[in-house]
């Protein structure tokens, strides 16, 4: 009996620590993010957003892009008193994510964001049960209107657009005419990006070779690093890649002095000398628009798409790496072409 | 050891027991299973603690809390279940737990040399480089003796050392033990085989139900005297075999070969027939194919050639379950592993094969009332000592588990019965009972294959005796026309001159 | 296209990648070999690696000497091993479950520490490539084997060291005995629990280095859950290697080489769907495992807590 007790205590401790690091329990998060003492001082209650993410808020990729946007909107609106943010990260298990989405809805959050295509089914179920709560789903275009749901926003990023621009830059910077792509899984956002990237390279330099590899995983940092190594050995002098695993690949690029083009978040900090430019997802506008709509009583129905034209996608250059003017000019021309529709980014 | 008291939950295992041993003597500790022999010795060896009493060594009180303490005091123990690591060599087993002359590095050459020396002195015939799992039971026991001697044991406890040995191996062991006593070693010999105890011991202490029944010199005692002290009543030591008319051949094996656990051919062209009302004994040194023979007949091991017939039906390809339904019963050698599900209750084990059929089940449900009634009856008829039919089987003694298996198998009124080592490790009272039931079964027309390493048992029960050596049947002889000597030679693979 | 795969340059590339990829698996699996040989199945390797990876990264990130970082990772790994010992040996908790608990603990704690102490993915300069003099000049072989960072060499060095400790030392003998027949070892005065504690601590230390080999050797970053289940593969490799150091080496190399091969297959554009390619190492490992596993090698007391029978 004594043994059992100690054992249980150990597990509780272990789980508590795990929970602290990845607050799966929504109850804990609001307490941390919005101290109860401050809330009553305000005349109006804060707007409350909860988000469920497949990876961590520090992944320098998909999840961090959205989390950073929420934080910047929060700062703009006047801090935690005006906008409360609760999050559950590393929810790679869809069942865990489903539970978290339901908990947040039951907690009375104004907007619950399901930040992963794979969460769709679970979120639709919860959204049916909580018609007063607003939900957002990405990467997706379906707002559930066909099913009679009016409380769902959908959002996606036209990753192919920035991919195309990155492809143009890569093609012009490459001397070997071999470019490597470290992909995660051949689907969703990553596939869009890679397809756009390839088109960008081909349209600019038809004789260049784009080698694409997938690790079959979003988080296999070690394998992504080795993939980068292989690309370099196969002759690539420019690399790009997608998902949180690329932090390993950027390291390899840095070690070998090979240029890197980032996507999703700004990855310059990982390789200040080799990261040329990043396609950055700028969700701030989307988040602000959703908040405004909800406050106006419109709980869903809009599908957002980040594009270069609407400012949701930004090509951020690293000022520490010199990019020739003609390359920049070509990239700008590509952006203009995509914005006015004269360039198609997909086959 | 004076006034030793040890309590287990609900049991007084040792009740103020006194025991002493002199230098250079063999002192036998005799008693039925559960009499407290092993418990007393485990206290002496530091495996169990005792609540009351003192242990004196050379007149000085000593405290023995762990086996290490015991080893340091020169006490060694050879457990009934050998304490050897199968995957290691003899030398590694001996060196285990001892400091090495080379600090943290093993010095196996030196250990092996010393083993050879000891092996020479006491004629133990042990190869230090052999892997333990390749050794026969007798050899493993000698490894255990070497382990104790290597550690400088002056007092050696042998817990039922002959239970697993053939007559020749027992003789060899006794020679070794005598040489050891001549060197001044003291030996405690735990057993319930009366003639062995009388043969080897200087003095005999008898325990019954945790109480000391007395210590007597071996000289002048008879087997009947000892049996009475042990059991508390007169015990029938001879078996009455009435002649039984033999019927048709119920079990036929024709040129059966099979692979053993190690993947080598362990049965080589075995042919035999057993008739209704006949007990065919199988004698042989352990590991000569007896186990595989039993498993082949039970349908637990595939044959590589030949066929098996039961009651005129070819059952070679049948699974074990099908065979049991056509009147086959099996008492396996490893009763704890193969005979019962240890965690199950007594009554659950009693209906193990038949639980899917009426009268024990109705459709997919078990009929608990009927099961309980049936179990009570068997427990009573077969004198299984158990607190109740819901008691977990693992808490029963070896003899009672064996009776439980016997009850289950015989209650099914088998036409063919294979009994492998049915009384190994079973006390004298239970043995008497099991033998009687096997003989009763014979009279009802069952064809019985009795596999035993206890030659006395084979001779006492069998009509004919098959001797196995290296997977072959050396010969099948009639019981009336053979002798222990002849069988011993056959078991060693030698055809005696007639 | 297939013939491109069989050019010398590609083959050298595959071998070079495979040798390097095997590093964390080797450290972790060799450590786990100690634990399993003594009868403890520790499924918490991944958690121990994460803690080791974080610790090493943190020390290096704050300007600490890289060897100090490795030492710290070993220390933290040892502590994790000790924790596993308390739960699974002393308290005799079911080993599989306590291992998973340890994994979650390591995963959660390393993420928590990362968020509070560092906050965002950063990079450090880890162990540089150390081309061994003379050896690295050898044609072909030199590049494949002797053109890596020092932790890679150390991982391979651990193979004979592990084999030596297990087979040639008194402690190794005790480990093997305790894993196969703890009663026998106990009856000779070998403390079963002490041996198991020590092997768990050794295993933890090596898992710590395995983590460090990622965070300050191969990748030079720390990221939450960066091991991505690598520690579980390491546990499987111990079975694969039949609980022998050389077998573990074979398993780690096979797994890594096939992984390197499939990366090359993709990079060279050989038309195999990427989903199939990434499965290759796993499928092949399972196939070899089913074909070669020999039960006799398995420590008989694996997963069984030891309690002296009374």
Q: What report would you give on this structure?
A:
The complex is a heterotrimer of chains A (347), B (498) and C (310). By secondary structure, chain A is an alpha/beta fold. Chain A folds into two domains: 4-158 and 283-306, Response regulator (Rossmann fold, 3-Layer(aba) Sandwich), CATH 3.40.50.2300; 159-281 and 311-340, Response regulator (Rossmann fold, 3-Layer(aba) Sandwich). Helices cover 43% and strands 19% of the residues of chain A. In chain A, strand 1 (47-52), helix 3 (62-77) and strand 2 form a beta-alpha-beta unit. Chain A is elongated and about 55 Å long. Chain A starts with a helix and ends in a 7-residue tail after the last helix. Residues 17-42 of chain A have low confidence and may be disordered. Chain B has three domains: 2-231, Rossmann fold; 236-327 and 413-498, P-loop containing nucleotide triphosphate hydrolases (Rossmann fold), CATH 3.40.50.300; 342-395 and 406-412, no CATH class. In chain B, the strands form five sheets. A six-stranded mixed β-sheet of chain B has the order 6-7-8-3-9-10, with helices on both faces. Chain B has a six-stranded mixed β-sheet with strand order 16-19-20-13-21-22, with helices on both faces. Chain B has a four-stranded antiparallel β-sheet with strand order 2-1-4-5, with helices on one face. Chain B has 498 residues and is an alpha/beta fold. In chain B, helix 14 (398-410) packs parallel to helix 15 (428-443). Chain B contains 17 helices and 22 strands. In chain B, 33% of the residues lie in helices and 24% in strands. Chain C has 310 residues and is an all-alpha fold. In chain C, strands 1-2 form a two-stranded antiparallel sheet. In chain C, helix 2 (8-37) runs antiparallel to helix 12, helix 3 (45-61) runs parallel beside helix 5 (95-118) and helix 8 (170-180) packs across helix 10. The longest helix of chain C is centred in the first third of the chain and has 30 residues, at 8-37. Chain C is globular and about 60 Å long. The chains are: A alpha/beta (347), B alpha/beta (498), C mainly alpha (310). At the A-C interface, helix 1, strand 7, helix 8 and helix 9 of A face helix 2, helix 5, helix 12 and helix 13 of C.
